[in-house]
Amino acid sequence: MTVTVRFAPSPTGHIHIGNARTALFNWLYAQQHQGRFILRFDDTDRERSKAAYAEGIAHDLAWLGIRPDDTVSQSARFAKYDAAAEALKAAGLLYACYETPEELERRRKIRLTRRLPPVYGREALKLTDEEKAAFEAEGRKPHWRFLLPNFSETPFDPVRTEMRWEDVVRGPQTVDLASMSDPVLIRADGTYLYTLPSVVDDIDLGVSHVIRGDDHVTNTGAQIVLFEALGAPPPAFGHHNLLTTVSGEGLSKRSGALSIASLREDGIEPMAVASLAVLIGTSENVAAAASMQELADRFAPTATSRSAAKFDPLELAALSRHLIQAMPFAEAAGRLAALGIAGDRAEAFWLAVRGNLDRMDDALDWWRIVTEAPDPEGALSEEDRAFVKEAMLHLPAEPWDAGTWRAWTDAVKAATGRKGRALFMPLRLALTGRGAGPELADLLPLLGREETLARQS
């Protein structure tokens, strides 16, 4: 069997790191099993779904390193859902209900006062054709519920009916169908809810494993039954824990909180996002993986905790910084060239400055300092200005190398008596305009003697 997974976002907003967690769990699982990854846009909500969001989601996934084997949209597949709905109706498994939301709420409260579970009592199954016609005459349109097989003789007397599965993430799971209401599959306006299109697509696309957030655990029992009702074996299911903010709040596409697009714009490295999204809330150490293959080697679905994982953006920034500071020039070269950093000095420059970068774009500031002029914010006192001029008199002759800085400062120390911060800081400010940064032993050969002399005033 070929492992086939899917990531099924609704294109109603930007995906966030919590959504990326689901996408990455599926992608890495497929990679581990040489399987297929399908991107499925759940865009049956035509009013809220936007093509621009779908394009943005695809771009976000590509930035993370996820490249689907196939991409489909539910909006192009309504004929398949209609056919499945008609088959269920013909089998007596999809039945029309005419209650208003207010009527359903009243019944729910009555059941609660009687200390009964607040599940739908299947009153619609008792309606006669005349009663249905009367509702239709009033202008009511039915919503359609799927009849769960949680009874032996009469649907009005449900009995405990356990659905069991071996969860890819959580291990053995059990859901009692008697504790659930028959799920609504079609709204009164004729639009589909998530469940029926999702199951039809999983069957049609050959999805073998459904890996998603643990907020779907209770839905799984009903979905397994729906697969069987449509004549298909259910896939394997896996449910991972969800990400929350540090304060415990859920993430939302609508708010844009921690969206992948915003993290990318902030200069966060994609492998930092992927590493944290996958490893947080597991027994694995949260450390930045340098590649998707390395992350796949570390990925273990069963290592995931049952409780929600709190996501701290500061931890993400630290992982991103680590990746940049450890990045070899061969990997950075293309991105540096896109910033205009190229030429004979590019590799030596990268090795000199990478340890001081928080984001890749920060390299451009140091490139300008090296190739153009010191940061104008750096100011010297008159006393230090005079000291720098004297220090320039002791510059060694070229060629320069990593030992030039030590030779120069030793000579300046002997001539002026200055040492420590009093010696090094004025020279750093004169050469870079900044009070901290890369080692001057590495920067000095990049500047060269002529440019160094030009920076004494």
TrEMBL record:
GO MF assignments: ATP binding; glutamate-tRNA ligase activity; tRNA binding
Domain Aminoacyl-tRNA synthetase class I anticodon-binding: 379-455
Catalytic function, reaction form: tRNA(Glu) + L-glutamate + ATP = L-glutamyl-tRNA(Glu) + AMP + diphosphate
Subcellular location: Cytoplasm
EC number: 6.1.1.17
GO cellular component, one term: cytoplasm
Motif stretch ('KMSKS' region): 250-254
Ranges spanned by the short sequence motif 'HIGH' region, renumbered to the chain: 9-19
Binding annotation for ATP: 253
Superkingdom: Bacteria
GO biological process: glutamyl-tRNA aminoacylation
Ranges of residues in domain Glutamyl/glutaminyl-tRNA synthetase class Ib catalytic: 3-315
Entry keywords, A to Z: Aminoacyl-tRNA synthetase, ATP-binding, Cytoplasm, Ligase, Nucleotide-binding, Protein biosynthesis
NCBIfam families: gltX_bact
Task of the protein: Catalyzes the attachment of glutamate to tRNA(Glu) in a two-step reaction: glutamate is first activated by ATP to form Glu-AMP and then transferred to the acceptor end of tRNA(Glu).
Family: Belongs to the class-I aminoacyl-tRNA synthetase family. Glutamate--tRNA ligase type 1 subfamily.
Subunit comment: Monomer.
PANTHER family membership: GLUTAMATE--TRNA LIGASE, GLUTAMATE--TRNA LIGASE, MITOCHONDRIAL-RELATED
Name of this chain's protein: Glutamate--tRNA ligase
